[in-house]
């Protein structure tokens, strides 16, 4: 019986066999990797898939569409899901797009997702989805989360462009202010001030004429207002602080205003009873009581008195050098004027002007002066009339019967 002869492979053949097996393994691994790479198909991505926003934001979010199919293709793209009240679209280049060509491999197609966040929101997380699909059935969806919370909303503000103004007594002040609502919803603000007693403060929305006590401001918007401040008459010089408040159910905002009243000057010449007339006789003095009032809020010094008189008239005052040394703010000084019409003045009405003057102010008043005939001349006239009448009676009696 013949024995089978088993020939062992030589070392060279074993090396070739090992090399063939190694190459087969590498090829198998390469094919598997390539197959997995191609199976990914289309892929949507963005660098920041979760962000925080506030009401009213307008966002521009870069989105990339990659193609791993092995060849370029056209893909349909769209904003596939959007919360109620939100708005959005996809832009490629300078165009709003719904279809985009995507090259194979690493050079993906770039798009921009434009999102408009509503002005009113409750806090929470909102999701926007972008979808891509090809004619061959490949598709992908990208979800982007938007977080809205009170911390992001922040507090509003109430500010004035020029919070300090100055002027004299009688000046009406006007402040331009801005009220900002950074909350997540519209707010109604009640408006008020803590002005000193006697001051008047009012609020008028910019561009309107109606004064308001409250104003509605939408979320993430601002409203301009004019705050009008009227001080009381005769207010003393000084600095006055006025705080204005805007109060809603969510917050209390305030802005501090300052009014600086500078010195105001004024004089007024009159009489205790208000009458600007008096009687006088030719060649005789007539006394007139004058009231000289400081209508400003600063003391006046060295107020001089003078007058404009008809020719031949004179006037003197119960003052040294016709000067009032000082008149405190808001006070009245009484002066006696001694007016003497000329001796040749005839009966009738004349105008006499009295003037009070200092370095800061001046005032005048015109008086009507009625010049009357002296009593002695009236008696003389009566005597003359009686004598004339008696003479005529005598003549008629003596010669009347002839």
TrEMBL record:
| This protein's record includes keyword Transmembrane | yes
Q: Which domain of life is it from?
A: Bacteria
Record key words, sorted: Membrane, Transmembrane, Transmembrane helix
**KW Mitochondrion (keyword) present:** no
Residue ranges occupied by any Alpha-galactosidase NEW3 domain in the UniProt entry: 170-246, 282-357
What parts of the sequence cross the membrane?
A: 376-396
**PANTHER family assigned to the protein according to its UniProt record, in alphabetical order:** ALPHA-GALACTOSIDASE NEW3 DOMAIN-CONTAINING PROTEIN, HYPOTHETICAL MEMBRANE PROTEIN, CONSERVED
Kindly provide the name given to this protein in its UniProt entry.
Alpha-galactosidase NEW3 domain-containing protein
């Amino acid at each position: 019986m013949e024995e089978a002869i088993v020939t062992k492979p030589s070392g060279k053949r074993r090396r070739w066999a090992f090399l063939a097996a190694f190459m087969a393994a590498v090829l198998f691994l390469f094919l598997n990797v390539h197959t997995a790479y191609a199976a990914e198909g289309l892929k949507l991505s963005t660098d920041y898939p979760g962000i925080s926003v506030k009401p009213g934001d307008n966002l521009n979010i870069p989105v990339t569409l990659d193609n791993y199919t092995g060849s370029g293709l056209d893909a349909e793209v769209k904003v596939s899901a959007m919360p109620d009240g939100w708005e959005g679209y996809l832009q490629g280049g300078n165009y709003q797009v719904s279809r985009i060509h995507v090259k194979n491999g690493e050079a993906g197609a770039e798009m921009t997702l434009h999102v408009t966040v509503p002005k009113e929101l409750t806090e929470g997380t909102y999701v926007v989805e972008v979808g891509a699909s090809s004619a061959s059935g490949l598709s992908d969806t990208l979800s982007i989360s938007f977080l809205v919370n009170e911390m992001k909303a922040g507090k509003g503000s109430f500010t004035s462009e020029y919070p300090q103004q100055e002027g004299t007594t009688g000046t009406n002040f006007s402040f331009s202010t801005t009220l900002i609502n950074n909350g997540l919803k519209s707010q109604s603000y009640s408006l008020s001030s803590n002005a000193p007693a006697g001051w008047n403060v009012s609020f008028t929305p910019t561009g309107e004429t109606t004064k308001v006590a409250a104003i509605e401001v939408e979320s993430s918007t601002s409203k301009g207002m004019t705050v009008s401040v009227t001080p009381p008459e005769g207010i003393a010089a000084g600095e006055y602080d006025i705080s204005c408040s805007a109060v809603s159910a969510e917050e209390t905002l305030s802005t501090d205003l300052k009014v600086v009243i500078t010195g105001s000057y004024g004089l007024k010449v009159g009489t205790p009873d208000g009458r600007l007339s008096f009687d006088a006789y030719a060649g005789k003095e007539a006394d007139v009581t004058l009231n000289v009032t400081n209508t400003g809020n600063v003391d006046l010094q060295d107020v001089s008195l003078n007058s404009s008189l008809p020719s031949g008239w004179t006037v003197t005052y119960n003052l040294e050098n016709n000067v009032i040394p000082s008149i405190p703010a808001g006070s009245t000084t009484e002066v006696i004027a001694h007016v003497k019409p000329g001796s040749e003045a005839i009966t009738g009405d004349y105008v006499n002007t009295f003037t009070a003057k200092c370095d800061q102010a001046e005032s005048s008043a015109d008086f009507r002066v009625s010049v009357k005939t002296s009593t002695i001349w009236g008696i003389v006239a009566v005597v003359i009339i009686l004598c004339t009448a008696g003479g005529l009676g005598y003549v008629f009696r003596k010669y009347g019967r002839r």
